[in-house]
Every structure is written in structure tokens, then in C-alpha cells.
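Forwarding the complex inputs:
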Amino acid sequence: MAHDKTAVRSILDKVKSEGRTSLTAPEGRFVCDAYGIPVPQEGVAKSAAEAARLASDMGFPVVLKIVSPEILHKTEAGGVLVGIKDAAAAEQGFATIMANAKKYDAKANLVGVQVQQMLSGGQEVIVGAVSDPSFGKLVAFGLGGVLVEVLKDATFRLAPASQEDALSMLDGIAAADVLKGVRGAKAVNREALALVIQRVSELITDFPEISELDLNPVFATDRGATAADVRIVLDWNPAPARYRPSQDDIVRAMNRIMKPDAVAVIGASAEAGKIGNSVMKNLINGGYQGKLYPIHPKADEIMGHQAYKSVKDVPGDIDVAVFAIPAKFVAQALVEVGEKKIPGAVLIPSGFAETGNVEGQKEIQEIGRKYNVRLMGPNIYGFYYTWKNLCATFCTPYDFKGHTALSSQSGGIGMAIIGFSRSAKMGVSAIVGLGNKSDLDEDDLLTFFEQDDNTNVIAMHCEDLKDGRSFADVAKRVSKKKPVVMLKAGRTSLGARAASSHTGALAGNDKIYDDVLRQSGVIRAPGLRDMLEYARAIPVLATPKGENVVIITGAGGSGVLLSDACVDNKLTLMTMPQDLDAAFRKFIPPFGAAGNPVDITGGEPPTTYKNTIRLGLTDPRIHALILGYWHTIITPPMVFANLVVEVIDEMKAQGIHKPVVASLAGDVQVEEAAEYLFQHGVPAYPYSTEMPVAVLGAKYKWARGAGLL
Amino acid sequence: MAHDKTAVRSILDKVKSEGRTSLTAPEGRFVCDAYGIPVPQEGVAKSAAEAARLASDMGFPVVLKIVSPEILHKTEAGGVLVGIKDAAAAEQGFATIMANAKKYDAKANLVGVQVQQMLSGGQEVIVGAVSDPSFGKLVAFGLGGVLVEVLKDATFRLAPASQEDALSMLDGIAAADVLKGVRGAKAVNREALALVIQRVSELITDFPEISELDLNPVFATDRGATAADVRIVLDWNPAPARYRPSQDDIVRAMNRIMKPDAVAVIGASAEAGKIGNSVMKNLINGGYQGKLYPIHPKADEIMGHQAYKSVKDVPGDIDVAVFAIPAKFVAQALVEVGEKKIPGAVLIPSGFAETGNVEGQKEIQEIGRKYNVRLMGPNIYGFYYTWKNLCATFCTPYDFKGHTALSSQSGGIGMAIIGFSRSAKMGVSAIVGLGNKSDLDEDDLLTFFEQDDNTNVIAMHCEDLKDGRSFADVAKRVSKKKPVVMLKAGRTSLGARAASSHTGALAGNDKIYDDVLRQSGVIRAPGLRDMLEYARAIPVLATPKGENVVIITGAGGSGVLLSDACVDNKLTLMTMPQDLDAAFRKFIPPFGAAGNPVDITGGEPPTTYKNTIRLGLTDPRIHALILGYWHTIITPPMVFANLVVEVIDEMKAQGIHKPVVASLAGDVQVEEAAEYLFQHGVPAYPYSTEMPVAVLGAKYKWARGAGLL
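Prediction (whole assembly, two chains):
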């Protein structure tokens, strides 16, 4: 539908010229009309036939009211009829009202009868729009009344919203069932309501000066959705958009920065304990094979590498400069980096915005922009890119190459990432500290990892997104190809307060983050450990081809807890078809329970596990397996672990790849079994029925978001 | 308030005599009157003065209606007036109605004018009652309409409910703020509404045949609460109460069973691989020092102990008999145990209700009752009581004596408990398998652990409570002294389905469990790993003396996540007083953030941690500390761990005991530091900001429930 932008523009121009920041009710109504947002219709009929026609056009019921300058007390004059239900009644009503009015005041000038759409019944909902400092224009939806006010049961989408987005909002509130009809009420017309949402989202996109908009209430019925009241607020000075280089420019620069052939260390030092020494040591001991240029005002050589006074003195090209000098020297060195045309600066030093030195940070930002140097940090530990044996940090080199890329806004969380990864022997492609995010941020990293063949899952810790809108755009694209996990710290208002004292970031409303991340296909991790476990397990798990999950368990008690976890993680326990149930029953004792969970009971030998797992993998109706192992003498932990891997390998040889996770209940030997299983493609956890299901749930969330299910 | 029980009894008798199972509206109204539950008042006035008096008594507004057998269409006759707001209007109204009626039908017999309280405004709520198979009579509360129907926003308490219980229900729903007045509405009268809840709870307690009751809606206003509609359903054949021995009997028997001086093993065997062999081995290798009697039909001696054909042949007393024989032989051996007057039988064998052999289980239950033998199981791994070096299981002995008692309904979960405990070096007093719970259940265990000096926290996994009412009674008492943690499996409908296929247990509504466990002071664990971590950490943590929690962190990023976790776990971050803020600032760099979290920043030496932690422990306004450690070269993990323990010990010497937990972000060395801290009284977790706060939250939950805060 083509909207009448010209009409809206002229209204807004008028409002601006009058120095106002909000629209009057008639102006709001006019704007709605221009964008096809239904408002109560009205018109004046001069004849009974016209009354019937007007009423039929706008839909029944209608209200009829005498229009006459002389008649002020319309009801007293018998000049109002409500609840007119059909054309005949409208025609009849016109006659009645005119007759009454004539009787009431024979001299009155009877202009006609106003026909007005009568709103009632249905469900009162709210459609609105807000401008978020990070995400920009968002459309909001909720039910009217107490649900939105007390329970904050509202949902948000980036504007403009597609029809699919808009429809998903109707299911995005806790009280979604109300719209489907409860207590004998009819279901609302979902398409009509979604259309109102979509049109609002288009309106605020077309006119960024609209900072807030409220349609409250909107009457949603089985026939349509009509906004009874409109409120529009304007902001004539919207914040400027954050600078974004083109995708090509990002990729070009990031590839040089993350996979450099030549690294300069500004502030390199031979003196143990100095950061510039740690960085040099880590680059050398980590096994980096590219060129390495220590930069030092006096030294000729540092740790076996020729040193230079300035990057400008280095003969060849440099891809990235790692800064290990105090904050006050950064700007000058950065100018030299710019003049040397180095595309990236890794700014380890602290002492910028996080300590209140906002001006200092602005200065280096401007230098970076002027010379087209991308800045990582400041206030970071640096970064790892394992496939280049690159450890450009003051921490310690990381040993396990793999396909998980991680980033953190905070150095402390970065250290937790490194420790966990090492402890779990997690295969990592890169670990990056983003710190103050003066320039490089999550979108840049995503854009790099998207095309980095060494990375197939990206996990990010962040406290704020400087440009949530841009992140969402990039994440939406990247998450179609590779899972993106995010731990958003500062979820709660207390956490957000701590975040703002920590990085000066303005924490957005968490529900907005939640909705937008989902809309962008990002898997949100509820906590640090979850993010780490998701990052470890997701690349190990095969992508499921359908929603049917089956639990096979030796411990009935684990089966119950695993079922609980399936519900918590929105997984679907397959309803077992009769033939399949019978097939499972053949392998298990008569008192075992088939169905789902398949409870093979505790005293069974390895063959029972083997047969049932093989069946679960073979039958094409089953898409994922959750195994519940119970430690017994007859099937010890490593026997179980080996048989699982054996069956999975056998199936792989036949081209069958399904995600399988395991929960191990048993004595300490299950820890070794869990590690073995994990290293052989089965995320397995001792003493936990929650984590195996949570990581499977995360994989499913991704697959659904990427449209693979 | 004394209720009119006689009146209610006579109504119910009449209903029973008429073979009905529900009350008519007037009967329901009458029952409400007898229990002081306000219903709309009404009366017939014969004079204007009486109309005014009646109306004044019941409160305005009122409705007036003509009472006349001849006048059927009261409105048409001008015989109805609504919204009468004061005595004068009532008097006037009486006259108007009588005059109108006379005019309408001069011959009509005008009996008088009915004065009826007019309910409107306020908030519509629902007060109800249900009979739960496990918990018995429960009173329910929720808001009217969509909130209860779609969002299931209701809360339950065991009946009878105290005033405190009833008031807590008003805060127990998600939409609680509605009752406090929103959108300019007045707050409801909480005492009046709580009184209705209390009276309903008393009514259903006094008359157990009332199986369901609904007051829907109740109009709750700022002045009172009145039930507009009453529905009462009766069940003339309520289920009989489950048999419960007296507390003294339980304690006497349980002390002999759990801390036996003489154990018989029925089915003891010298043959490796047999359960009767494992049990003997575990008792001997575990170091049990009491008398040990192997029972075997043929052997004279087993593993160095004289064997007997029957327990009846054993010369002295026996405290407990451990059964390691097939199900079909259990009944006969149990009779002999009874005849020998052994107080307890540990029934390891499976093959009873869990495999469909319900009759077999009933048979042994009856034998147990007849001979007063308490039965543990059947279908269990047995039990441990470490302080007696007693391992009456087919698993392996457990090494770490301590003060945590654990139980599980399922054997698989029991194995997870043993493995986790051993891996974490958790100090344990007992681990007990409850299996089919033919007799001994959670209440018996709680009653024993309550008076067991070796136990100071009890953690239980359960799928159902056979007698939730009795458990709640016992837990309410015990949890005042010792923390009780419960993992209730089958939380979700899928989990409940798995539970019922597993043990034949009927899973109750999870919200009922949730509310009753809270009402009983029980800490509910959301998952298996949480239960285990709570069990491990709670006895280590000092009991907090107030709600003021302070985070001291080296990593700002951890501070944010720890703050989020505080909100999730309902902990209160202290608002830092100015003087204390200044005191903290003295120890931290100028760019560090005081407030709460206290962010000491990352590059600080051990003294900064030490000074701030000491201040946190010393200042009496702070009641608990959460430490966020960031691994740096200047303060390595073990240095941090040592300094924390040092400061805490120093404070302990001064009589200062506060709960302290730690989250460690760093490289793998933090794992050793976490273990050291845990063993020295500080629950500490590497790579997790959630778990340290969750265990502190669990301790707080307990302290609040026990009335210590």
C-alpha cells in the first residue's frame, strides 16, 4: 500500500512551523488516515439512503447523531441512536432522528445525521513506537490495561517491521492466548492487527522526527483493528547516526588486523613485568610466524627482533599495531600509525573513558577516523587469533585451535573465557577484547567472522551495543550462516547501574534487547557459564533436521529431570509412534517404559544402550537424542562412552548426522566419560540434567532462527 | 471469630440427605454468612425509614426493588432504582417506588422494597479452595478474568491459612501491584481481603467434605471484600489419611535404623557381582564398627562374619536389616524381621510397584505395619551414614564426613549425588535412597535429621510427596532450625508425565508445590546441579544477619553480571552510605568506582583486595560480601585465595561471621584457588558469576523463611 507521505509531511511541517512537539487529535487522525491505520470512521448523511450507505461502508454497529447548529442537547431532542446494527436500521434511524428533531425544534436547521463507527467489544490493545538510543525506531505491542502497566507484558521489533515480524509480536506477549479468544470471545483478526503494527512501523521509519507514538487503545475484533486514540510526539533534533564503514571496508581492514602478516608492538619491552614485554613474549612463544616489529624510543633490538623508534621507520607494510604504552602517549603514536597507513590499532592501555577521560578517547577516535585506522579498545587485554598462532595480549598464549570465536567487553570476563576454554579444551579461533569500543565493536567482529573460514560459531559478552541497529542488521545476516551467542550483561536495573558506572554505557531496556536479539537470530545466553557452554557445545552438535527430540535413559529419575529441562528449553519431546514404540520395547525389559523418555531401566548391559541409541539414530522421524546414563557395574562409564561414540561413528559412515547430548549420573568416573564423549562429538555433562538440554536447546534456537527448521 | 459450624453442618446434612454434591446459591450464601464471608447484603423494607436503616447498615450504594407477587416486570413498573447513595435517597426512593408501583397496578399487593447492596468498582478477584491428593485442602487466590485464566496467575496456601499466610497471598501473584492501586484506582483493603481468604480456609478445614469452593468474583475495594457468587462442591467419600506414626516413634526407629549398632544383611553373599556381596564389602571396607550378621540359607560364614539362616537365629538385637534378595523372597524374610522385632528394613530389591507389581508392594507394606517395621524402599541403592562409617549400599563407600544430608527418590540421581559429592569433596552426613517410598519418606528423614547433631542441612530430590501435607508440617518445623533444600522433579507437565511412567506417582500442580514449599520454609532448587551446589555451600556459609549485600570486584565486568545475579536471586545490593563510600574510596584508585559494586579495578595489588574486604567484613551495616576476582600478574589466584582466607580468619577471631562468596575470572589456576577458598569457608566458583550468587541467595532464602532476618 502506498502511503500518502506528502500529506504527513505537510502536517509535520505545519507543526514544526508552529513550534510544537506534538500533534493534535485531528492531526493524529489525519496522519493515521494517510498511512491506512484505521480510526473510527464518520460522515454526515443528508438522506436516509446516504446514512445506510455510509454505515454499510464503515461497518456496523454505528451511532447516529443529529447535526444541527441549533440543537445542543442532542439526546434530549431524541437526536441520538446507538447500536445501529444494519442498513435498514440506519435508514429507519435517519428518519426517526430527523422527525424527533423537527418535533423538538421546528425552526432548527437540520444539516443531516452524523454516522459514526461505534467501537466496542473485542480486545483493547496498545500499538506504539519508541526511539531507543541504541536501536533507533522500534514498534511496540501489548494488551491494554493492567497487563502492560503492571506486568510490563509488551514486545518490541525494529522498525520497519515485516508482516512476519508484526504477526510474531501477537505471539510475543505472555498473554498471547487472549488474542486467540478466551471465555467464549472471538479471536481477533490477526492480519488486521498486524497491519496496524506494520503501518505504524513504516510511519516512524519514514518520519524519523516522530519520536513517540501511541495508539491506545486499539480495539481489535474478529473483523478488524481500529485505533480509538492517537498520540504523536516529535523530536526535531534526533541524534546523528553512528559512523559505519562499508561492509567491504570492514572486511578488508579486519582481515589484515585479525590475520596479520606483520605486527608492530608499540612500547615493546625486554623488561619482565611490563605489558610491552608480555605482549612480545606471547607473540613469540605463541608461535606467531609473521613479521614482528618492536617499537621503542631507544632500543635497537628487543627479544631477538630489530627495534624501531617509530612505526614510520619500519621498512615494509604493517597490518596491525599493538599499543602497550601509557594512555598519554597513545595519540601521538596513533598519528604515526595513521601516517604509516596501518589499518588497525590494538589499544591495550586503560585511562580513557572508563576513568573519566572522555576527551582523550574522543581525541584518538578522531585520529583513527582521520587516518582510517580502525581502533580495538582502548582498555583491553588484546586479542587472539589461534590459526595464526597470534596472541596479541598480555595474558598467556592459547593452545587449542578450533572454530569458536569469542569476544568480551570486559577484561575480567575475557580472562574467564580464556580460563574456561583452556580448562575445557575448547577449540577456539579467536578471542577478542572490545573494552571501551571507541571504534571496533560487535558488528565489525561479526562481519569478519562471517567470512572467516576458521570460525563457525561466535559468542559475545557485551554490556551495551553502541549501535544496536547496526548490530541487528549484521547479526540477522550472519546468524543465517553461523550461530551467534550473546551474553548481555546489565539485564537488570541493578546490573545496568553497575554497567554504567563501569563503562559509561547507557543500558537499554532489557526487553528491547531480548526481542531484537531474537528477531536477529541471536541466541541469548542467560549467564556467563551458559555462554561458555553454548560456545563449546554448539559447534560440536550436528544441526537438527526437525523438532522431534527423544530421551533414552537408564535412570528413570534422570528422564524426569531431562523432560523438565526440555520444557524449559522449548524442546519438543516426540510423541512416540506405535511402531517405533514397539521397536524400542523389543530392546528393553518388559517393565521398562517406552514412550518418551525411553526408560531402558538401570540394570541393563551395554547392548541395550547400543540397540536403543542405534534405533534412535536410524529412525528418520527422530531428529535429536538426549541420553541419560546411569552408572552401574554392568555398564561402567567408559564402556558407555565408547559404545555411544561407536554407534555414532557407525551412523556417520551411513551419512546420518543427528545432534546427541548426554547427562551422566554416577560416581566420579563419569567425569572422564563426559570428557571423552565431548571430544568425540557428544556434549556430555556429569551431575547435570540441565546443561546438556540447554546446549541442545541453544542449537535448536539457532536452527529455527536461521530458518533451517 | 467463632463460626457457626452447626448451621453449616445442618445445611450439608440436608444436601447429603438429598443425594446432592453441590450447594444451591442460597445455601452457598448461607454458608458464607455462617463463616463471616461477606456476600451482598439484602433485606426487605416495609417503610421508608426501614429502607434507610437497612441501606445504612449494609453500606451504600444500594439497589431498591419493588417486592410484589403481582409485579413481574419491575423496571417497566418503575419499581427499580439503582445507585442509591445515602439514607435520604433511600427514604425518598422507597416512596418513589411504592408510588410508581401503585400507579402501575393499583390492585397489586405491595410487600415492600428489597434493599440490596450494590457491588461495583474495586478489583474483581477470585478466592477458591481445592483438595489436592497430596497436600489436602488448599486455599487459592488470584485476580479475576484473563490473569487467572490465561496467565494462571494464582497462588495457593495450605488450609487453614494464618493471617500472615493470607496476606502473603496478596503479594504472591505476579500482578500483585494491581491490588495496591494502579491508574489512580484505590488500593484494596488488604485486611478485609485476607480475612475472606482465611475464612474460606477455615471453612474447608472444618468441613473436609467440601472438595471445591469458588468465590468468583469477589469485589475487593478500599472498604472491604464481598463475594458476589459462591459455588461449593462436596465429596462424600474423601480419601483416607495416610498412616503416620508419632514423632517420638519416628525418632526412636530412625535413630536405630540410621545409626545402627547391629546390621543384618539378608542375602549376604561371598560371590562377587552379587548385590549381597557388594553390600557386605561396602559395610566392611567402609569401616563399619557395629555388629554385622550375614543372613544366608546355607553358608556358615561370609567374608569373615558368622552367617545365620534367618534373622531369628541371630542371638542379640538387630537395628536394621538390609535386603539383598529377589523381590519374590522379600515378604517371607520381612515377616521374620518383624518377628525378630527389628525396627527397620532397607529394601534394595526392585520388582515392586515400579514394575507394575503393586500387589507385592501392598503385601510388604501390610507386613511392615503389622510388625511395626519401617521400610526404606523398595527399589533403592540403600543408604550411607558416614559418622557410623556405614555404607549400606551396593555402590562404593563415601569418604568425606560432614554435615550435609541428601536423599533421592531415584537411584540414578542418587549416583549423581555420590559422584558430585566425592568430586567436590563435600562433607556428608548421610545419603539415602527412598525409591518407591512404600513407607519411609521425606518426612521421616526430616524428623530424623532434625535431631541428628551430625546434620545441619538437608537436600532432597523428589518426584512426588506421598503425603505433602505431612511433609509441609514437618518441614515448617525443621526448616526453622536447619536449611531444607528440595529438587522437585516433574515440574513441567512433560516431566510429570515421565515421573508417572517411572514411579506411578501422581504429579501435583507445580505451582502448588512451589507455594507450599515456600510456605514451609523449604528452599527449592531449580535443577540438579543447583541442588548439589546449594547442599555443598549452605553449611559453609555463615548465616547473614541482614539484607545488605556488597559486591567487591576487581573486574568491572564481573560486577555487572554479579549485580544481575543479585536481582535474579532476590538479593539486595546495599545503598552505600556516604561515609562508607568514602572509606572504600580511600583504598581504591581514583578512577575506580565506589558505590556498590565496589570496583577496585583490575591492576590492583593484594593489599587493595585485603583492605576493601576487611572493611566490608568490619562495617556492621554490611551483612554479606560477594567477591569478584580478576586474575592478574600482580594478584595471582592463590595469592587472592590466601588473602581472603587470612582476612576472614582475622575477623573470625574478632567474632565477626558473615557469609562471603567469590566468583573467579581467570586462567585455569583459578580452579585451584576456588577449591582452596571453598575448603576454607568461602564458596567460590571459577568461570561463573551466577553460581556464587545463587548459593548466597539460597542461604538468604532459608534465613528469611526461618525468621532470622
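The radius of gyration of chain B is 32 Å.
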